[in-house]
Amino acid sequence: MIILLVGISGVYTIMNLNDLNQLIESIIKNDSRIIKLAEESLDDLYSLTAAEDKYLISRDPDYYQQFKNIRSDFTKRVDELEKIADTDVKTGLLTEIKKFQGLYDVLIDERKSLTVQEKNNQTYVIDREMITREIDQKLRNLVRVSTEDRNTKLQRSKDMSTQITNVFNISLSLAVILVIIITFFNTRKINLPINLLSERAKEVAGGKFGDPLNISSPPEIKELADTFNMMCERLQELDQMKIDYISHLSHELRTPLTVIKEASSMLQEGVFSKVPEKQEDLFVLIKAECERLILSVNRILDFSRMEAGKMFFSFQKASLRPIIEKNVLKLSPLIQKKKMDITLDIPEDIPSLRMDKERIEEVFENLLSNALKFTSEGGKITVSAKSNGENNTIEISVSDNGRGIPEDGLMQVFDKFKRVDDKRSAIRGTGMGLAIVRHIINAHGGHIWVKSKVGEGSTFTFSLPAL
Ligand code: ADP
Predict the structure, then answer these.
(1) Whose CA is nearest to atom 13 of ligand 1?
(2) 81 Cβ contact partners less than 8 Å away, ≥ 6 residues apart
(3) Ligand 1 pocket residue status of 439, Cβ below 6 Å
(4) Residue 299 alpha carbon, nearest atom of ligand 1
(5) Strand-strand pairing, 353-355 and 316-318
């Protein structure tokens, strides 16, 4: 719109400036020149008669030459005037002047051959006076007409300049007003949704999520609002997850504490004082629940270190096999209790790796205890390792033929607080194990992924860079 306005006023100004230019050119080339030539011709006219008289009286050839020169100048000027005359009136006047000039030439030729008395002849004097008066009059008329024309053109050029200035000023003012209006509306259009977003952000900061924002605004702001909505949705989800998780974790910590409390009360009250085997069982139970509690608390501590970015690693060259065997041994009472079959498929020449031994032990402990936890009695667990020459990594897998993970949960098992299908399941856990495992593997420069089918089992595989 502004460009159109500027364009139109530009074209108008250029066209008018052209006209103005032509007008000024015509003033300079025609009117001023005509006035100047006509005034010079008038001077010529009187110099001509004076030179004529002097020559005819003295017969001095110098005067005759002077007369000829003036006459030639006069003729040249009149010829030029005829060429540049731009109106019929001027052309008419010049035709008249030429006619009288011709008469004057004839008169001179006649006079040259007369005697002195005849030269002073009254008729001749009267004729010449009449001719010069006519030429004088016509030339003065020419000056007057040209002066009038020049004044009219000057007035017109003045009007045109004023008009051009006015149009320029008006279009400039219009453009400025338009810019102000457009800027005002644009600013309003941007400010309104931004204010809305800011208000909503304050509400979200106060824990009030509300409905998603639906604002009609420029595409950039709309995109921002959509991202904001997505962020709110995610925050709300995390908020809910946190609430669910805290209740789950409290339960997770309360269960062993309740068992310990009940068992120790029974021991204190001497319920099985006469049955030492039962008492022994109670001690074993208390110990197992204490270990579970320590494990859970250790996980929570690990998790908070991980979240704070303060999980430190001490890397060294170490062999995989002893770590795996140590963990299998640690879990063997449970493996036996559940009558599980565990197979190790680790090549003898599997190379040593750069790792934090304790953290990698933690990884195995997590993966193996999950496999045990989510596989029913008599199941099968396999730990295997192989070199992947393509990526120059060692890939280690822990597979089970347990309950498996539903497809929609596969992407989430490594997320913090995530317990797939945990509501209906009676299987205990903090939901932090795999998040910690992934963090440890990533810190080693490796990756972890899972393949699983419900009812068939799961395979967790992680890769570690070879040396
Ligand atoms: P948790 O301490 O609850 O086991 P994890 O982070 O170790 O937490 O595991 C997260 C979830 O992943 C578990 O709650 C479970 O739903 C699923 N999961 C992990 N390992 C297995 C497995 N071997 N078989 C089936 N599901 C598993």
Answers:
(1) 419
(2) 34, 37, 38, 41, 90, 94, 142
(3) no
(4) 2
(5) antiparallel
CA 285 to CA 334: how far, in whole Å? Answer: 14
Beta partners for residue 227, in sequence order: none
Which structure tokens are listed for 298? 């250790």
**Closest-CA residue to 102 (of 139, 83, 122, 74):** 74
SS3 of residue 454 by DSSP: coil
- Dmax over CA atoms of the chain, in Å, equals 187
3-state helix, strand, coil in the chain (%, to 5): 70, 10, 20
85: which 2 tokens? 């005359």
Six token digits for residue 375 = 């596989």
What DSSP assignment string belongs to 329-383? HHHHHHHHHTT-EEEEE--TTPPPEEE-HHHHHHHHHHHHHHHHHTS-TT-EEEE
Say if ligand 1 is within 6 A of residue 422 CB. Answer: yes
- With cut-offs at 50, 70 and 90, classify the pLDDT of residue 107: confident
Cα(10) to ligand 1 centroid in Å equals 75
Atom of ligand 1 nearest to the CA of 375: 24
Q: What is the pLDDT of residues 41-85, one digit of tens each?
A: 999 999 988 888 888 788 888 988 998 899 999 999 999 999 999
Cβ atoms < 10 Å from Cβ of 366: 21
Distance in angstroms (rounded) separating the CA atoms of residues 276 and 281: 9
Whole-Å CA distances, 142 to 28, 92, 130: 16, 10, 18
The residues near 229 (Cβ < 8 Å, ≥ 6 apart) are: 212, 213
Instruction: Please write the tens of the pLDDT for every residue from 90-101.
Output: 999 999 999 998
Ligand 1 center to 414 CA (angstroms):
9
Amino acid at 175: A
DSSP state of 29: I
Ligand 1 centre distance from Cα of residue 85 (Å): 108
- 242 token code pair: 């946190």
Query: pTM of the predicted model, to two decimals?
Result: 0.55
The whole-number pLDDT of residue 53 equals 82
Q: How far, in Å, is the centroid of ligand 1 from the Cα of 427?
A: 9
Cα→Cα distances 33→41, 165, 358, Å: 12, 29, 109
How many C-beta neighbours within 10 Å does residue 34 have?
Answer: 25
Residue 58 φ then ψ, to 5°: -90, -15
